[in-house]
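Q: How do we represent a protein-ligand complex in a form that can be generated token by token?
A: Start from the inputs.
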Amino acid sequence: MDSFELNKIMGAVLGTCLGVLSLNIAANAIFHPATPEKPGYEIAVPEKPAGDGEQKSAPAQKDPPIAELLAKADVKRGEVSHNKCIACHTFDKGGRNMVGPNLYGVIGREKGTEPGFNYSAAFKKAAKGAWTAQEISDFVKNPRAYIPGTSMTFAGINRASERADLILFLNSKSDNPKDLKAAAQAQAGDKPGEQAPAQGPADNQPK
Ligand code: HEC
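Then emit the structure tokens for the protein with heme C bound:
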């Protein structure tokens, strides 16, 4: 083959390359492949509102206080719903830290103090003191609303009674479980006046 023919072949090859390249550029421009801000997957389990009786935008103060809910809570149901946490947490004594810290004995534990776990800056800044049942309930309801910037990428559990079940279960995973039910009943009996605002129409959730 003479050099003229070779030139033609080279030209065709080059042309094809150029064509593929510009197609690629055009495709990138059109489809913008999104690179995530954080590497890895976000495991956010969406939570359906409890039932038709419950309104859509449920503000935190709509829920009855945890003490009241704990009186009706059930540790077996809590064990079922803790399955929503096990992708990231262990609950047994000496369990390892995973995406989230081990939660054995977390009620009454100083926030953000599980040895060897690297808490987010936002969490370390916001979390002070020991976890109370009420605070865990508020946190788990919507972690990223309770502590903006937390690395607990969990959508939350909207149903207050389910959170109470879960807290009873958490309480059982401890060296010294507290008698939360008795405490709840005492509290509910002691100051009926203080409980009043939480009752009423907001109280119509299935339990
Ligand atoms: C997608 C993973 C993930 C899921 C699911 C998850 N968590 Fe977490 N959790 C985390 C991470 C990460 C942290 C640490 C938060 C930080 O450092 O900002 C955390 C922190 C916590 C803390 C604070 C612990 C401490 O040492 O102060 C509690 C309490 C907690 N989670 C409870 C729960 C419960 C209860 C559930 C299930 C209803 C749950 N989490 C589901 C990832 C998760």
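Confidence is low (pLDDT under 50) at residues 51-58, 192-205. Residues 43, 84-85, 87-89, 99-101, 103, 106, 111-112, 114, 119-120, 122-123, 136, 140, 150-154, 157, 166 surround heme C (CB under 6 Å).
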